[in-house]
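ESCALATION

Customer reports they have been waiting on this structure for their group meeting. Please prioritize. Original submission:
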Amino acid sequence: MNKKAMGFTLIELVLTIVLLGFSAMIMIPFFSAITHSPDPVLREKAIALAQAMMDEITAKKWDENSPNGGNPPICTAESTGAATRPSLDPGCTFPGVGPVASAIGLDGEAVGANNRMLWDDVDDYNGVSEPVGGHFYDQNGGELLGNITGFTRTVVVDYIASNVSPIDSSTPVSATITDTKRIMVRVTSPLGETFSLVAVLCNF
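Update from on-call: job pushed to the front of the queue and completed.
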């Protein structure tokens, strides 16, 4: 046969295809692992952002009108009378003789997640949304360092009934001033994954 007319035999083609298939089976997981290798780091960073905000909030007073140390509890719609809350002064009514719980939100403090230096109670944080101007901030107004591009962080604080079940991160509820506040911190990572932390603080 003329050398110019020579080509690959069917067996050679089949063997080549089989070898390429085996090579692909080995290489695809390798490339997939490389592609997703940053995922755990991004998730850890998202959880750290959420936990830092939750720790900051839960260190604050329950309400603007709560005395230092949290005692005696302030009066709410849910704590009317000694039968409901024996620990309260029997004269506590709503509106009561003692400190009365305030509405959710800021109480004259500066607005903005980057102005949290004077925020002193948990519901001051309701509505926080970061980044602000492309940056995240700590409670002293300092910019958080590190690459946190693509993340978002939001906070919702609301009153809930003390006997609500289950307590989760569902849509905020409309409740009167009760003895219980729910704090929800949500962080979304650049992967589009949302991480939610929920805490409940009681009036005491």
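Sent to customer with the following note: Residues 40-202 form one domain.
Escalation resolved.
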